Amino acid sequence: MKKIEAIIRASRFDEVKAALESQDIHFFTFYEVKGYGHQKSANIQYRGAIYDQGYIARVKLEIIVSEGFVEKACGAILDAAHTGEKGDGILSVCELNMLTNIRTGLTGSDAINS
Q1: Residue 111 · residue 104 · CB < 8 Å
Q2: For the whole model, what pTM was predicted?
Q3: Range(s) of the domain holding residue 26
Q4: What's the domain count of the chain?
Q5: What per-residue confidence (pLDDT) applies to 86?
Q6: CATH number at residue 12
Q7: How many Å from the N-terminal Cα to the C-terminal Cα in the chain?
Q8: Strands 49-51 and 56-65, how do they pair?
Q9: CB within 8 A of 33, min separation 6: which ones?
Q10: Following DSSP, what letter does each residue of 13-52 receive, concatenated?
């Protein structure tokens, strides 16, 4: 079992979701995050107030897959999230030591297929 984490541009979320669905990956967790990194954004002044635009909105995906889906999921994310510009995001894959479905009590690959 592997856990894939990807931080992508919010504007590319729909494309990434569609790419994952095309690879038969229909379930994942996502949430909005903010980051600060190489891609810089300037402060904006509006009606005399300065708004800090230094933090850039992103979406973080967490996907748990069996070994057979790792390459397909990573390829789908990399292709769909890529724009070629700074700030496209980052992808990581980690080994899961334990996975249990709370409802059924099933473990491992059976836990995500139930």
Answers
A1: yes
A2: 0.82
A3: 2-112
A4: 1
A5: 85
A6: 3.30.70.120
A7: 15
A8: unpaired
A9: 7, 57, 58, 59, 60
A10: HHHHHHHHHHTT----EEEEEEE-SSS----EEETTEEE-
Return the amino acid letter for 13: F
Written as one letter, the residue type at 53 is Q
Tokens read off for 40: 């810089």
pLDDT for res 45: 67
Look up residue 10 and give its amino acid.
Answer: A
Whole-angstrom distance, CA of residue 108 vs CA of residue 89: 29
Looking at the DSSP bridge assignments, the partners of residue 31 are 60
Splitting the chain (114 residues) into consecutive groups of 10 residues, what average pLDDT does each group show?
95 96 94 75 67 76 95 98 91 96 92 82
- CA–CA distances in Å: residue 94 to residues 6, 42, 65: 11, 34, 11
